[in-house]
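Next comes this protein.

***
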Amino acid sequence: MQLSLPELSYTRQSLTAFEPPIRNDGRSIDQLRALSGQVNILPGAHGSARIKWGSTVEVLVGIKADVADATIHGGAFEASVDVSPSVTIQNRETDHLPSSLTSALQDVLDALPVDYLKFTPSKAWRIHVDVIVMLCAVPNENILSALSLATSLALQTTKIPKISTPNVTEMVLGSSKFEPSEEYDVDSEWDNAVPLQGLENLSVIITASSVDHILLIDPTVDEANVAQATYAVGVLPDGTTSYTRTISMGGGYASTGRAITAERYISLVQAASVAGTKLQEASKSLLAYEGSGFFDILP
């Protein structure tokens, strides 16, 4: 439910008139929402992960690999995002949400190397990253962060069958050229399966807002509505920022309308980088977790 102007004004005043700022959920300005997760939960998938982001967003990711025609670059990662019918009706008024999330996720996946997925001149692995948004309790809530983290964890758990190719070449008639064989064997032993490569190039997306002189990490919808600008920042495991995308710009309800400066933008990106690095470091514990049920990544 959208807040009234007095309620939005109260939200802004709580952030800008107190030291420290008071957020409506009690977090500090640089704190992510509590989140928990599971990995390796989908039988038959090559990798999977499930993330609960706060109490409002839940995302499930399954990874499947199949043999397909090689592309000019080698193999391929293909994103597909769907939204569960149980998601709040306001988020399904148009078909834009699944397509926009698919596009955003594909941008993240396009940073991964794919040349090693090719194993004959014409064949390569195609990695399907299938996502379902199971819960989005608040319209226009931030789904990107949960989606990117779940994808990262699912890909880190993914293994693909080992491929063997004959160590021979075939003579091309009428020529002195040799070409690699198109023959290959797929190892059916799961213990011999191999992990994906290049995942250090995979970003986790952190959202950040500027509300006058305050920088907020992982803003709620109400906080973003009183911000001058909100960005999605892609953060690599080493803390490097891979990209930024504008989510909203131009001054929110009850804000001063003050334009965000270059210095402010740099500070915002740096704050997102710190939060993203901490999140990815904390998520490593989930990969090592052997219990059942959800694991608290950030309490």
